[in-house]
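Sequence, please.
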């Protein structure tokens, strides 16, 4: 067995499904060369750009005909199989997690669809899928939020290096906010006082570090159905209709001045007869005021305290709780407004001015700017039309709903033990000092809830340090294993490693090094080794070598250099012989009821990735460093964004002796789970040779 472990997750949204492939070092191999700091860290998860692939429509479209979902899934399964080494497929878990679209299906249709998906995957692949209920499921919004919380804190480094993320009061984790088209989620670890007061409202999350020790976190997570941007807009339009009952023209301050649309936001020529239409006035302040009642803050609160719609949320201490927001929080602050700057700090005053000036512009002027690609080729008329309402909704949810302090206006006073100088130095240029920041990627990885799921699974595959241990996963905040506890994965058998790395992995590692090193001698040495492997290995592996190294060499081309193909060893000829797959992908759309109004777009290049929220409302739009810089008319954005590049935290340690009791945020636990050791049967694995020169393997 090689040194890498692999995992596959299918994010099944309402308008499309996206497959993610992740890999991490086998825990036995990782421990061989691990430093003391790394022994206290979680598994180091890796993902390359071509490890993700999307297709459409969503699996929910097969609710009435579940038997037809198989061929739809095959393309996604084939993509995963093209990445995971064939001799490791049997030890690679596969998960399909359905969100918004499938949640709307009737329970019987859900059961039939998920059952068909599991049966098809078991029949057509050798991926590890022993438990359909655990591996193929519809996840609630709370679970989605928890996985997102894990992903964000994992990428920020707060799990592995808590000493670099001290926010005061022994608190080192970040809160997580997610907003899509149909719902919004929040997940955070309350301060110690609130954690003790609301212990029954928290989820107990247990993970395991490389040394086999367990670590626990107490996290609050909830979801607000109907509080995504699309459903909020639908409720807003209904409120305008009530305000102007019987009128043909309904004044809408959340639309740019001069824009007239149907109630559904379609062009005026789509209006039918005397049907009412929306007439934009471009008055952003009035828009913010009219949107505020949609928060439903006056709803009865059965369990104090509450934030929105009468839903209980423990009090948030913004002295220690610093939040990152993904999906619509990122798109709405960056898609039109300075999206060329990555992970820039959010400034309420500057952002509000930018949106106000944009929304006050005449629609004809905005439309001309869109046609001239003034805000990038991914910003179309619909994007520009929606941004004023989205911005007002985001501002209301953040500041009036959740209570995030407005930077510069009501910034919180930090509590005792808060070291502002150290915090500033630790998070220089990232803005994580502030109560809120929108992010898309951290350390070049997208903040996706699927990553959180895989981090949890990988942690669960580390053998415990004691003969008995409590399982990795999450559930109610009680002692032992609560009845609702969800284990991280069902493969409890550690996968052994061989004495040598597989030749495939060795070649891939050399190709990775070639990308970071220079000099003809090293490159020649690498090519000689790959050629030896090419001659003596099976045809199936040769195909894998060529695909991997070709991709690496293409990445090594200087920007702007012409593509060379045709007759080279890794050129067109081998492309035709061995096949080539595209790494282009976009994040799928999940906007609940409004999903039918949208369609997934195609990415233009590997450099321009489109990303949507967990239940996002945008499609075919790009963000990030490669997006053209914006030139928004009538305002200056210099004070809003800091163009300095992001420096993500990459620490590899986790808190050690400074543990708290169960009312705190993190504790070390003793082991109680019986470890099932043993070597798995792997009759399908190829014979391992000590050297490729000893004897050639038999050809297919």
């Amino acid at each position: 067995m090689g040194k890498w472990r692999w995992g596959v997750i299918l994010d099944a949204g309402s308008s499309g499904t996206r497959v993610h492939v992740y890999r991490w070092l086998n825990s036995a191999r990782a421990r061989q060369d691990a430093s003391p700091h790394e022994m206290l860290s979680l598994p180091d998860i890796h993902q390359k750009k071509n490890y993700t692939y999307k297709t459409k429509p969503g699996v929910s479209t097969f609710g009435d005909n579940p038997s037809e979902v198989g061929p739809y899934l095959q393309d996604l399964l084939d993509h995963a199989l093209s990445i995971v080494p064939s001799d490791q497929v049997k030890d690679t878990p596969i998960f399909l997690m359905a969100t918004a679209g499938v949640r709307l299906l009737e329970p019987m249709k859900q059961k039939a669809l998920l059952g068909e998906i599991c049966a098809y995957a078991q029949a057509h692949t050798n991926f590890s899928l022993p438990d359909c209920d655990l591996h193929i499921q519809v996840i609630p919004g709370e679970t989605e939020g928890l996985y997102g919380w894990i992903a964000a804190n994992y990428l920020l480094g707060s799990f592995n290096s808590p000493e670099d993320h001290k926010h005061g009061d022994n608190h080192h984790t970040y809160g997580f906010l997610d907003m899509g088209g149909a719902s919004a989620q929040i997940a955070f670890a309350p301060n110690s006082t609130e954690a003790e007061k609301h212990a029954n409202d928290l989820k107990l999350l247990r993970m395991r570090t490389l040394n086999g020790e367990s670590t626990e976190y107490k996290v609050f997570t909830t979801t607000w159905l109907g509080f995504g941007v699309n459903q909020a807009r639908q409720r807003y339009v209904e409120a305008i209709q009530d305000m102007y009952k019987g009128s043909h023209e309904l004044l809408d301050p959340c639309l740019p001045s001069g824009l007239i649309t149907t109630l559904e936001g379609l062009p005026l020529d789509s209006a039918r007869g005397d049907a009412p239409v929306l007439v934009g006035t471009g008055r952003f302040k009035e828009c913010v005021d009219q949107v505020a009642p949609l928060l439903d803050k006056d709803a009865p609160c059965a369990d104090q305290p509450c934030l929105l719609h009468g839903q209980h949320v423990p009090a948030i201490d913004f002295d220690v709780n610093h939040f990152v927001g993904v999906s619509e929080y990122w798109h709405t602050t960056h898609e039109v407004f300075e999206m060329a700057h990555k992970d820039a700090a959010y400034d309420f005053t500057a952002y509000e001015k930018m949106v106000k000036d944009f929304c006050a512009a005449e629609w004809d002027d905005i439309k001309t700017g869109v046609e001239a690609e003034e805000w990038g080729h991914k910003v179309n008329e619909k994007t520009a039309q929606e941004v004023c309402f989205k911005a007002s909704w985001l501002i209301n949810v953040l500041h009036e709903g959740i209570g995030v302090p407005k930077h510069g206006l009501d910034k919180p006073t930090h509590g005792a033990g808060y070291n502002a100088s150290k915090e500033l130095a630790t998070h220089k240029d990232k803005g994580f000092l502030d109560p809120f920041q929108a992010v898309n990627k951290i350390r070049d990885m997208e903040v996706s809830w699927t990553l959180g799921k895989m981090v949890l699974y990988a942690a669960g595959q580390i053998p415990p340090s004691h003969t008995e241990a409590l399982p990795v996963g999450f559930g109610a905040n009680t002692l032992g294993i609560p009845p609702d506890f969800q284990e991280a994965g069902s493969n409890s058998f550690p996968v052994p490693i061989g004495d040598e790395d597989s030749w495939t992995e060795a070649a891939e590692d050399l190709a990775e090094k070639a990308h970071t090193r220079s000099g003809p001698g090293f490159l020649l040495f690498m090519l000689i080794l790959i050629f030896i492997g090419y001659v003596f290995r099976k045809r199936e592996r040769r195909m894998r070598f060529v695909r991997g190294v070709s991709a690496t060499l293409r990445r090594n081309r200087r920007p702007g250099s012409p593509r060379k193909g045709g007759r080279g060893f890794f050129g067109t000829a081998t492309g035709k012989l061995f096949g080539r797959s595209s790494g282009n992908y976009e994040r799928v759309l999940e906007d609940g009821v409004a999903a039918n109004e949208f369609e997934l777009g195609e990415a233009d290049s590997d450099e321009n990735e489109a990303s949507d929220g967990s239940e996002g409302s945008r499609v075919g739009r790009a963000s990030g460093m490669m997006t053209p810089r914006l030139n928004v008319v009538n305002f200056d954005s210099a004070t809003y964004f800091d163009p300095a590049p992001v420096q993500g935290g990459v620490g590899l340690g986790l808190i050690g002796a400074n543990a708290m009791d169960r009312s705190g945020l993190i504790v070390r636990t003793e082991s109680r789970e019986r470890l099932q050791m043993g070597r798995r049967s792997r009759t399908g694995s190829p014979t391992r040779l000590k050297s490729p020169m000893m004897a050639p393997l038999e050809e297919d």
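Residues 339-343, 408-431, 555-700 have pLDDT under 50 and may be disordered.
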